[in-house]
Amino acid sequence: MAWLLIDNSNTRTKFALGDAARLLPWSGVLSTPDISPESLARLLAGVDFGAVIICSVVPEKAAILTDYFAGKWPVHFLTAQSPLGMELDYPQPTQIGADRLANSAGVLSRHGVPAIIIDFGTAVTFDVISAAPAYCGGVIAPGLGAMSGYLTRKTALLPEVELAEPASAIGKSTVQAMQVGAVFGYRGLVKEIIARICSELPGKPRIIATGGDAALIAHGVPEIDVIDPDITLDGLRQVAARVF
Fold first, then answer.
1. 209: nearest Cα among 121, 101, 87, 114
2. Residue 67 annotated to the active site
3. Considering 7, 99, 119, 213, which one is annotated as catalytic?
């Protein structure tokens, strides 16, 4: 039986199929603001699945997903009570975002532990998994787009810029200067957080990057071992194998 896997994040919502062995070839994406019964019906027309698992950080859209699937298929929303395959060494587990739990579940068989998963999305999150394995906690910082967009919104003369690899650390235009500040500055943030976590976490962790800005930032952060765009969806698949 195939399961429908849904990663409902702030910007984009990703869909995939998986079974007990692997992620399957079909996948789809919707802009999260565009999630509606109509857009779901168009995307899923002809897609065959027997159950649905969802991780959501957008309550308004989670309600739409619930209304669309409930009563038609078995539905499981990922929470701290889901069978994640690890302990939660965290005082208030209900505060952990569902996407962060999915990433943590995905790291077990894909990369091993201890591990640090860095998810470059609207926010950037660092999630730390010990060798036990146990979810130990992490870090939340503004995403790269949020940091660069803030300057445009809060200043009169600075333009919007397309984030790209700077040619030099000395910008020769306003746009280049903003790209340097965003990309090189953000890499500095990531490196410092990695160093601090590694100084407190026993063992040598595997460091995995995922999310929309992962490739750009990881290019200049040699501490990152691998970019894994599928870790969230595969984490959902692994939990689904224990639920359904």
1. 121
2. no
3. 99
